[in-house]
Each structure stands twice: as structure tokens, then as C-alpha cells.
């Protein structure tokens, strides 16, 4: 199965197109990230242990990989959430549904 995510990251102006492929929920998912964002330069293609991601949450190999390869200031970057959701869809653990975050300064 395949899951995808189109992410418009925000004020930085970068977009990311994420593709995750998996045979089932018990193996690995191959993830590709197409973006011009320099913070994701070394995360263009990698594998995710799906069960580890589901069991370990923010302590999973996925988030550790993202944390090691992106600046701390980018912890809240929506590309990480897009990767997580695309993997869940590819593994058959979620249905695709858009996520919206509206940010305002008051």
C-alpha cells in the first residue's frame, strides 16, 4: 500500500511531498521526502519500523531520526507529522483525512 502527504510547512514557504510504502503493519515502510527544505536534505529516503513507530511514539526510531537530522528549532515542523501519517496510511493503520492547523497572533 502507499500513503502520501502534501505539506505546506508555513512561513518558511517550503513544501514537501511525502510518499510511504508498506506491505503491511508489521514490517517496514520505505519513505521518500521530496522538498527544497535544507533541513530535510539527509532525509530524502529512509525506512521506518512501523510497529516501533506505533508502540514508541516520540521515542520511536522515526522521531529519533528526524530529531538527529533537523535543527531543534524545527521540532514542530509539520513535515514530521506528514511522514508519520503517510506511514500509518501505507500500513493500513489509518485512513487519509486532511489535517488543518490554523495559526493566529492575537
Q: Which series of helices and strands comes N to C? A: EEEEHHH
The largest sheet, given as strand count, sense and whether it forms a barrel, is: 4 strands, antiparallel
Tell me the helix content. 25-40%
Overall structural class, as computed from helix and strand content, comes to alpha+beta
Stretches where pLDDT is under 50 for at least 5 consecutive residues are none
- How many domain modules? 1
Q: How many extended strands?
A: 4
Structure description:
- It is a single chain.
- The chain has 106 residues and is an alpha+beta fold.
- Helix content is 27%, strand content 26%.
- The mean pLDDT is 94.
- It has helices at 50-56, 61-69, 78-90; strands spanning 2-8, 15-22, 28-35, 45-49.
- The chain starts with a strand and ends in a 16-residue tail after the last helix.
- Strands 1-2-3-4 form a 4-stranded antiparallel beta sheet.
- It is built from 3 helices and 4 strands, in the order ββββααα.
- The radius of gyration is 13 Å and the shape is globular.
- Strand 2 and strand 3 (28-35) form a beta hairpin.
- It has one domain.
